[in-house]
Amino acid sequence: MSADSQSPNSTRTTVRRNAKRAGYGREQIHGILRDGLVAHVAVNTPEGPLALPMVYGVHEETMYLHGAVANALLKASADTEICATVTIVDGLVFAKTPFNHSMNYRSVVVRGRGRVVTDPDELNLAFEVMTNHAVETWETTRRPSPSEIRATRVVALRLTEASAKVRSGPAVNSPEDVNEPYWSGLVPIRTMFDRPVSNDDAGAPAPQSIEALAGTPVHECNEI
Fold first, then answer.
1. How far apart (Å, rounded) are the C-alpha atoms in residues 22 and 8?
2. Topology of domain 11-211, CATH
3. Which burial class, exposed, middle or buried, applies to 52 when counting CB atoms under 10 A from its CB (0-12, 13-18, 19+)?
4. Could you give the 3-state DSSP secondary structure of residue 221?
5. Were 157 and a residue from 21, 63, 109, 113 both cysteine, which residue would form a disulfide, CB within 3.0 to 4.6 Å?
6. So where are the chain's domains?
7. 104-123: burial string, b at 16+ Cβ within 10 Å, e else
């Protein structure tokens, strides 16, 4: 699929409700995944459906997820179908009736078969990608030890079946409400990084990549 394709590549990730908000281009999907911080990952386990928030990272067309080896979700996601979603809320939208209230958001849904990563080189790549997802700190921290790597399970999920859904702009009021005497508008949500706070046992000053976060938006967005 080309980077700007707007055709779904899977019926499972075709947006049907408010289809005009859908996006299937790789650039848009990767942009939302780049701006997000947490993926909610869902899978069927022997005890029933389970969804958990997870740190993630993306390299080319693969999303990497990680957790403890004992993590029930990651254990269940090995060689089985899973679903990962990333959502960024950019604003609250208020219409003249609660029925038309909404939110401005950017979201991505990824579906596919999870694959446990065992190759040492790919594991190292996955750890680096996930470490650097929010802010680049891989080069300013100690590398994971062999015991830490053994205690961690990494699952790879291809972005083959992925779609984006985005809402932006003001409230949409029903024709019968346009002249009603009620406020209508939106409240943008802007989450900002604050100044870093060093640990008492910090062995060095905060890296420049962390210092530079102060005052910058957590989720970059050019359109509310």
1. 9
2. Pnp Oxidase; Chain A (2.30.110)
3. middle
4. coil
5. 63
6. 11-211
7. bbbbbbbbbbbbebeeeebb
The rounded average pLDDT for each run of 10 residues, N- to C-terminus, in the chain (224 residues) is 61 82 90 96 88 95 90 78 96 96 97 94 96 93 93 94 95 94 96 93 92 89 50
What does the DSSP 8-state code read for residue 120? H
3-state helix, strand, coil in the chain (%, to 5): 25, 35, 45
- Residue 128 CA to residue 161 CA, distance in Å, equals 24
Integer Cα distance of 131 and 204 in angstroms: 19
Beta bridge partners of 66: 154
For residues 129 and 30, is the Cβ–Cβ distance under 8 A? Answer: no
What are the distances in angstroms from CA 218 to CA 5, 26, 118? Answer: 28, 22, 32
Write the DSSP symbol of residue 5: -
Q: Which of 91, 104, 97 is nearest to 182 (CA)?
A: 97
Angle at 132 between CA 130 and CA 137, to 5 degrees: 125
Partnered with residue 165 across adjacent β-strands are 22, 107
Q: What is the pLDDT of residue 5?
A: 52
pTM (2 d.p.): 0.88
Span 57-100, pLDDT tens digits: 999 999 999 988 777 777 777 788 999 999 999 999 999 999 99
